[in-house]
């Protein structure tokens, strides 16, 4: 067994990049913001352990309201995305055949390879007061003067749903792909209506895809920055914006670190809850996507 | 499923219109001869791409140093990210598929973590950690360590933190399909370890290596959240676009966006071709 020390060395060398990556870029940085979030400034340049940053979050209404609003709107966005994406995924997986199927899926993918900022810019040009949709509404005589469609919650939700669609369609279509046509036909033969077949057969079969899609869309939505800021303007009020403000604008890193931990907690809690409710693991869920 | 109803088909058509409307609008208004990207249509122009600024007030994006610099910065980040992602991703894939050791399942699990951490949080945690390291090391070594401060090297590290996961998954998936009998045959024929790797294993992996590299390139180019937190004075393209979009509308941003769409489209089609070759 003279090869043993050499084998151990090889294994160590192969493991080194992964350990450096996960250690220096993931684990230690998160330990750092965890520690930072529990440090309070007691005098200029002097910090001590304390819960002040978290207390500040609960006592300042702007902070916890923005947090609650971000969570609630992200859930709403996820639900709307699911409802809008389901018929598309069903069509791609069950109806479209051959080249049409490949093309429909490819067309879905294309817009999402383009930067989020380009897509947001498109919505800004469409929605703003001097933009395309108000112009068309006025030209059609539906509005007396151009209406401002940007800078409200509707615009933010629209932008976020648009950004999430692909990440819902792909896992849904993958899950629906494996549905046996015979099972669906049996449902109809047994006298089930379209609605009954959808509710009792198709949706339960698609559940892994639904969970995967919802988790990914929720995570991306909660962590989004550019879409709510650009489409919502001053009314955007997204929690990531608060983190950015504390870190970059106000240079209050401990407060920003506490906000970061809270966002991470919210995002992880939802992922965990989603997996728990449906009894799936993270690995298989990510594979769906 | 029985035949699709007309309503369903109409919905599909409306959906694809919805999907492409913002991109088409961005592209169209890059050619509008007006100082603002808004209707009415004032005529076709290429000023926003190549103009000297005499007609529309601002130079076109292909001659404007601000935009050229930010495109350059994006490449300065994306190329190292893609190369490192392929290199480290290959080693990681090897560890996941070939090596046996205690704690492997934990390691495999940890490699997935970066995908469930919001990009903004990845950004601030790396910023805070590397600032602490820089402070400590600078006191100790009595020298400036600018690479650990916000700037392009830190952006590379920040993007790698999650792009490595994607690269590892792509390469590991390909390695899993590899028939190890091929390697054994090469060994039996007297080839050395290095030679087998170079002539048998790596050629088999190459579609996945190219694919992972292209995906890393694309993800780096379009990343915004993590980059925003780590950027210094040199802004990559998405950050420069964001800054300009906050300042006000200008068809120059549309022109840059169109160039970006064309570039991304080109990379995506190369990727589609290589992944087709894989099958």
Query: What number of domains of chain B?
Result: 2
Overall pLDDT confidence of chain B: 88
Estimated share of beta-strand residues of chain A: under 5%
> What's the structural domain tally of chain A?
1
Second rung of CATH, namely the architecture of the largest domain in chain B:
Orthogonal Bundle
Q: Quick one: overall form of chain A? A: globular
Distance between the termini of chain A: 44 Å
Stretches with pLDDT under 50, minimum 5 residues of chain A: none
Question: How would you describe this structure to a colleague?
Answer:
- The complex is a heterodimer of chains A (289) and B (279).
- Chain A has 289 residues and is mostly helical.
- Chain A has one domain: MetI-like fold (Orthogonal Bundle), CATH 1.10.3720.10.
- Chain A has 13 helices and two strands.
- Chain A has a two-stranded antiparallel ribbon with strand order 1-2.
- The radius of gyration of chain A is 24 Å and the shape is globular.
- By secondary structure, chain B is mainly α.
- Chain B has two domains: 78 residues, no CATH class; 181 residues, MetI-like fold.
- Helix content of chain B is 72%, strand content 0%.
- In chain B, helix 3 packs parallel to helix 6, helix 3 packs across helix 8 and helix 3 packs across helix 10.
- The radius of gyration of chain B is 24 Å and the shape is globular.
- The chains are: A mainly alpha (289), B mainly alpha (279).
- The interface between A and B is large, with 79 and 83 residues.
């Amino acid at each position: 067994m003279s090869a043993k020390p050499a084998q151990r060395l090889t294994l160590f060398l192969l493991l080194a990049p992964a350990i450096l990556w996960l250690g220096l870029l993931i684990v230690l940085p998160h330990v750092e913001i965890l520690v930072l979030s529990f440090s309070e400034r007691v005098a200029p340049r002097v910090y001590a352990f304390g819960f002040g940053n978290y207390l500040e979050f609960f006592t300042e209404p702007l902070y916890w309201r923005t947090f609650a609003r971000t969570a609630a709107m992200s859930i709403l966005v996820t639900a709307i995305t699911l409802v809008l994406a389901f018929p598309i995924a069903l069509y791609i997986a069950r109806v479209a055949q051959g080249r049409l199927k490949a093309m429909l899926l490819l067309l879905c993918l294309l817009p999402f390879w383009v930067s989020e900022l380009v897509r947001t810019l498109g919505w800004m040009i469409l929605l703003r007061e001097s933009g395309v949709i108000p112009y068309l509404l006025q030209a059609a005589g539906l509005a007396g003067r151009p209406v401002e469609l940007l800078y409200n919650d509707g615009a933010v939700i629209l932008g976020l749903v648009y950004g999430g669609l692909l990440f819902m369609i792909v896992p849904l279509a993958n899950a629906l792909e494996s549905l046996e046509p015979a099972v669906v036909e049996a449902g109809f033969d047994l006298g089930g209506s379209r609605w009954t077949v959808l509710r009792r057969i198709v949706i339960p079969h698609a559940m892994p895809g639904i969970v995967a899609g919802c988790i990914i869309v929720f995570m991306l939505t909660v962590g989004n920055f550019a879409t709510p800021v650009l489409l919502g303007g001053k009314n955007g009020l997204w929690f990531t914006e608060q983190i950015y403000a504390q870190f970059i604008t106000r240079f209050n890193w401990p407060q920003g670190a506490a906000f970061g931990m809270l966002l991470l907690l919210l995002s992880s809690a939802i992922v965990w809850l989603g997996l728990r409710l449906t009894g799936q693991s993270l690995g298989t869920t990510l594979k769906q996507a | 499923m029985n035949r699709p109803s007309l309503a369903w088909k109409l919905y599909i058509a409306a959906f694809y219109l919805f999907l492409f409307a913002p991109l088409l609008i961005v592209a169209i208004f890059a050619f509008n001869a007006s100082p603002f990207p808004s209707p009415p249509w004032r005529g076709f122009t290429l000023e926003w791409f190549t103009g000297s600024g005499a007609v529309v007030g601002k130079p076109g994006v292909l001659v404007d140093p601000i935009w050229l610099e930010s495109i350059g910065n994006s490449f300065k980040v994306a190329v190292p990210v893609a190369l490192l992602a392929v290199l480290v991703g290959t080693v990681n894939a090897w560890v996941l598929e070939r090596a046996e050791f205690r704690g492997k399942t934990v390691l495999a699990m940890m490699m997935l973590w970066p995908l469930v951490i919001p990009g903004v949080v990845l950004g601030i945690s790396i910023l805070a950690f590397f600032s602490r390291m820089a402070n400590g090391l600078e006191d100790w070594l009595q020298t400036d360590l600018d690479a650990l401060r916000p700037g392009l090297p830190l952006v590379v590290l920040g993007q790698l933190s999650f792009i490595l996961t994607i690269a590892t998954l792509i390469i590991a998936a390909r390695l899993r399909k590899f028939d190890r009998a091929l390697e054994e045959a090469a060994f039996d024929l007297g080839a050395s370890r290095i030679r087998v790797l170079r002539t048998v294993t790596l050629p088999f992996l190459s579609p996945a290596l190219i694919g992972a590299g292209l995906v890393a390139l694309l993800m780096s180019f379009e990343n915004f959240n993590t980059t925003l937190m780590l950027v210094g004075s040199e802004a990559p393209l998405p950050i420069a676009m964001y800054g300009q979009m906050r300042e006000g509308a200008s068809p120059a941003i549309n022109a840059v966006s169109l160039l970006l769409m064309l570039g991304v489209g080109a990379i995506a089609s190369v990727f589609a071709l290589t992944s087709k070759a894989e099958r």
